[in-house]
Amino acid sequence: MQHPVIPALASLVGPAYVLTDPAATARYTTDWRRNFPGAALAVVRPGSTEEVARVVAACAEHRIALVAQGGNTGLVGGSTPDDSGTEVVLSLDRMTAVRRVDPLDNSMTLEAGCTVLAAQEVAAAAGRLFPLSLASEGSATVGGVVSTNAGGEQVLRYGNTRDLTLGLEVVLPDGRVLQALTALRKDNTGYDLKQLFIGSEGTLGIVTAATFKLFAPPRKVVTAWAALRDPQAAVGLLARLTEVVGERVTAFELIGREALSQVLAHATPGMRDPLATPCDWMVLFDVSETSAVLDPAPAVEAVLGDAMEAGEVLDAVVAASGRQAHELWALREHVPEAQRLHGASIKHDISVAVSRIPEFIETAGAALRARFPGIRIVCFGHVGDGNLHYNQSAPEGMPEADFRAQEEAVHEVVHGVTARLQGSISAEHGIGRLKQAALLQHKQPLALELMARIKRAIDPANTFNPGRLLPPDLH
C-alpha cells in the first residue's frame, strides 16, 4: 500500500519528480564506494527552494526522515538512505541556477545542485577563480561540499569550503527558510549561523544555495615534482618554499612509493615515473602568481637547488609546459582509482599538525608492520595542510576476506597514533555512518555533548539525516 506522503509530495513537485521504482531510485540509494546500499521510500527532486521547504514541511508532518543528497560522491555513507525503506532522499540535482556573479565584489551565488566544476567554469567566465578543486568535482555539488566542508588540493592557500563560504540559504527541519545569502566579509551581529550548517552533513539543515568568495586567477603556475630523502625533508621543503614565495604555494602533495607504484601498475598510456631513479618519497607542488609582471620560477628553482645541496631533495623536475604539469598531476589524481584496481584496501583520512607528519608516518608505519607483516602502506595527501590519505593494501598473496577481517584492528592502530599526536580521524571526508565508532572513541565527550544539544535544538524530531554523524543514542 502506498504511503500517504507519496501523493502529497507528488502534488508539491510534480509526479515526474517523485521516484519510487527501484530501477529509477538505484543511483540515489547506493553510495560512491558501495559500502552502504539502501532503499528509499521515495526520491524527491524539487526544483526550487520553495519546493524544498514544502517537501520538508510535508515530511515533518508525516514524521518521515529526510536524507539530503547532492552529487552522491561522499565516502562515509552519509548521503544515502538506510535499508529500512522508510527514508525519503531529497536530491538537489535539479537546482543548478547561477543566481549572481559579481567580479567587483569577488563573489558568486549558486544553487546547491551546481557541480563544483560548473562553479569553477562560472567563475572563470567572469575572469575569476573559484579555487575549490576535488577529484570528484565533475559530480560533487556545491551544496554537498558545504554540508561536508570539503577540502581538496588547494586548501593550503585558499582554505576549506568553510573558508570560501560567505553566506547560505538553508531549509530548516520545520520547513522554514534561513535567508543568509550575504556577500559581506564583515558582519559582527552575533552568532555566525552559517557555520552551524557547514560541515554538519545534512543533520541540521538542507543547503539550497550558497555565496562563495572568488579570487584573481593565477597568471603563472610553476609545477614541480621532487624526490625526497624522507617525509621530514618534505616538511622542510614546504618551509623553504613558504619562506621564499609565501602564500604563493598553492598545493603541496606527498606521494609514497607504494602509491606511485600502484598508479604505474594500472597506468593509462603515457603515464610514467617523472624521474629516472625510483625513490621512496616524492612531493608534487604548485606555486602560482596572480601578477602579470612577476615570475616565481627562478625562486622555485633556487629553493630546489638549496634543498638538493642540503641533501633533502634527491632529484626534481619542473614542468616546462601546461601539458607536462597536467601529466604530473594525473599521477597524483589517479592514486585512489589505482588502489581500487589493485584490490582490497583499508582507508584513512587523518590530519595532524604539519610538523608532526614525519612522526605520524614513522610511528604508524612501524606499528602496522609489526602487527600485520607484509602490509603495504599507500600514503599520499595534502601535506601542506596536514591531511594524509593513509591507506593500506593487503600483503602479497593474502585473500581479500582475510585482509578485510583485519580492518578494525588496522583502524585501531592508525586512529590510536593519530589521537596520541592530537590529530583528527577525519580531515575532509566527514563522519557519516562509517566513522561513528571512531568519533565516539576519540572526540572529547564534552564536544559530543554540545553537538548533540545543537542537534536536539534545531531538529528535535531527528528527521534530518538521522543516524549520520551523531549516533541515534546521542540525540
TrEMBL record:
<dbReference type="InterPro" id="IPR004113">
    <property type="entry name" value="FAD-bd_oxidored_4_C"/>
</dbReference>
<dbReference type="InterPro" id="IPR016166">
    <property type="entry name" value="FAD-bd_PCMH"/>
</dbReference>
<dbReference type="InterPro" id="IPR051264">
    <property type="entry name" value="FAD-oxidored/transferase_4"/>
</dbReference>
<feature type="domain" description="FAD-binding PCMH-type">
    <location>
        <begin position="36"/>
        <end position="217"/>
    </location>
</feature>
<keyword id="KW-0274">FAD</keyword>
<dbReference type="Pfam" id="PF02913">
    <property type="entry name" value="FAD-oxidase_C"/>
</dbReference>
<dbReference type="InterPro" id="IPR016171">
    <property type="entry name" value="Vanillyl_alc_oxidase_C-sub2"/>
</dbReference>
<dbReference type="InterPro" id="IPR006094">
    <property type="entry name" value="Oxid_FAD_bind_N"/>
</dbReference>
<dbReference type="InterPro" id="IPR036318">
    <property type="entry name" value="FAD-bd_PCMH-like_sf"/>
</dbReference>
<dbReference type="InterPro" id="IPR016169">
    <property type="entry name" value="FAD-bd_PCMH_sub2"/>
</dbReference>
<comment type="similarity">
    <text>Belongs to the FAD-binding oxidoreductase/transferase type 4 family.</text>
</comment>
<dbReference type="GO" id="GO:0022904">
    <property type="term" value="P:respiratory electron transport chain"/>
</dbReference>
<dbReference type="InterPro" id="IPR016167">
    <property type="entry name" value="FAD-bd_PCMH_sub1"/>
</dbReference>
<protein>
    <submittedName>
        <fullName>FAD-binding oxidoreductase</fullName>
    </submittedName>
</protein>
<dbReference type="GO" id="GO:0071949">
    <property type="term" value="F:FAD binding"/>
</dbReference>
<dbReference type="GO" id="GO:0003824">
    <property type="term" value="F:catalytic activity"/>
</dbReference>
<dbReference type="Pfam" id="PF01565">
    <property type="entry name" value="FAD_binding_4"/>
</dbReference>
<dbReference type="InterPro" id="IPR016164">
    <property type="entry name" value="FAD-linked_Oxase-like_C"/>
</dbReference>
<keyword id="KW-0285">Flavoprotein</keyword>
